[in-house]
Write a structure and sequence with these properties.
homodimer; about 325 residues; mainly alpha; Farnesyl Diphosphate Synthase; two-stranded antiparallel sheet; about 65% helix
């Protein structure tokens, strides 16, 4: 796939755009201009690490499990999307920390519960033993519960957001809708219902949009709440972009799962196939799956055209997401 | 215990107070004046039934499980406390529906996850098979997740609350804090940690306050957000009342569990003892446990004195809660 994703051109234009710092980029030491996303990855880890209860606070095991699940070395794609949308819309990243943190906590919760023996029964995640392997099943259930509650507590208690309670409520509503029974959790239920029978492509895309797409869209959608009233068109376009990138991301994830070996992803691979879950490449073949991911990527990109050069952070990030190594 | 709980006196005074309708009591057909709480129990079930996604919406099994867990015939004590606080503070119950519904959803989620095989492994709840028995373990995990997310979505999307986003954010923060790792979920983790060793009474009360007391306090605390700025003293007193009633309630629950038979509670009894969990009567004996519940009840009541006759709905409810049959 790498060869087929269009390279970003006009390097000079892009560098110039990236040198124009977003409102809060300076406090990141100009890191937003770097070609990788480590500055924001560092930022969100530090932010969550400071906000989450310490291991030294009772209940110790629970807080330890929560930190283990939330502060691992993931790519933090959802927070990155939130911050990148912020760069595009010129929003100070301090206004986005709670949103980026909350979406990461929801993602972390979903992984902990997904990995449970009664669910996917995975023992390895990002190269480390899963939470229930380390802390036992009861603590893993509770840690997942606490992580998702923490997401809403973070949004409700954030000092920046509390100054604009309207934005705060909107963001909480967006995150809850994306995570709930009509969003991510519903997607997981559809995933279970789909086991053992062959879904159609339409059904699978619906499932994927819920399971992965909605939370990815919420990452950008929450950032947009700062600009929603001022610019509803931008919000709509960015939501369309996010939906497509979310679906492309999940198809890409399928492809990685389908092709990769344990060594390169750090997950127990083939678990989806072992569990007889439908996957995109399983349903239509690797070639058509790649083609669909590319198509979604192209559509997503074209939705950013209205932004001109300002769209570059999101373009770069979409590129980063969809070009992950197979 | 029934004999030792002070009977409400001055029936004439009380009836007069109850005939003075709270702001929204008229729409309840004057039901708030009835001596039982069925009007509000009906109200909250109807409210949640209308708000939760129907069974006919995909994912069908998940939505069916959610409704099974949330709409069972419980006592709905937490919503009742919310509405009763509203009567005391003269808040229209329409302003409390989302809060009452949200705390009930959090309670329902906690029961679903508590009953899981990896947790208490209970097969019966309120006389019905538990969610995982009916829908399987994966769906039960997801239904619990969706229920807790729904609680926050309900608060964030409620039309009445959205007109006062400051109250909305406060309520969300109160509920999240009460449910999270420093509240209910943390209490459950302490419960697990306490298995196999004898906690002190101080430790057990701390555990109980987290596991049960915090959510009960939140039921009243959320209602208080409508009056918090106007009357911080009332909020403080009512929070103190709720904390004590919450602890008394849990000790009472222990006593019921300790003494009762399967037939009268509809739960598989003695499961706490079988699991070697510490209980209040197990630690100090039935007599001292009853005495402590009474002491907490008396303290709670005295905290309402400042309200005069207006406190009657909360007094009645506390009485109802603590006088549940052994």
């Amino acid at each position: 796939m790498e060869g087929t994703v269009p390279e970003l051109t006009h390097r000079a234009v892009r560098d110039a755009a990236l040198l124009r710092p977003a409102a809060g980029a300076r406090q990141l030491g100009g890191g937003a201009a770097a070609d990788d996303w480590s500055v924001y990855q560092y930022r969100i880890r530090e932010f969550l690490s400071a906000w989450l209860p310490p291991k030294t606070e009772a209940p110790y095991e629970l807080h330890s499990a929560i930190r283990y699940a939330a502060l691992g070395k993931g790519k933090h794609l959802r927070p990155l999307l939130c911050y990148a949308a912020g760069e595009v819309l010129e929003i100070d990243p301090r206004f986005l920390d709670a949103m980026a943190g909350a979406v990461e906590l929801i993602h972390a919760f979903s992984l902990v519960h997904d990995d449970l023996p009664a669910m996917d029964d995975d023992e390895l995640r990002r190269g480390r033993p899963t939470v229930h392997v380390v802390y036992g099943e009861p603590l893993a259930i509770l840690a997942g519960d606490a992580l998702q509650i923490a997401a809403f507590q973070l949004l409700a208690s954030d000092r920046q957001l509390s100054r604009t309670p309207q934005v705060q409520s909107l963001a909480i509503g967006i995150l809850a809708a994306a995570a709930g029974s009509r969003g991510m959790t519903g997607g997981q239920a559809l995933d279970i219902a789909a086991e053992g029978h062959q879904p159609t492509i339409v059904e699978l895309e619906d499932l994927y949009f819920r399971k992965t797409g909605q939370l990815i869209r919420a990452s950008i959608g929450m950032a947009c709440t700062w600009r929603e009233q001022a610019d509803p068109f931008a919000t709509e376009q960015l939501n369309g972009f996010a939906s497509r990138i979310g679906l492309a991301f999940q198809i890409r994830d399928d492809l990685l799962e389908y092709i990769s070996t344990k060594a390169t992803t750090g997950k127990s691979t083939h678990s989806d196939r072992d569990n007889h879950k439908a996957t995109y490449p399983g349903l239509v073949g690797v070639g058509r799956a790649r083609h669909r991911a590319q198509e979604l990527y192209d559509e997503a990109m074209s939705l950013l055209d209205f932004l001109g050069h300002a769209a570059l952070p999101l373009r770069r990030l979409a590129n980063f997401i969809v070009r992950r190594k197979e």
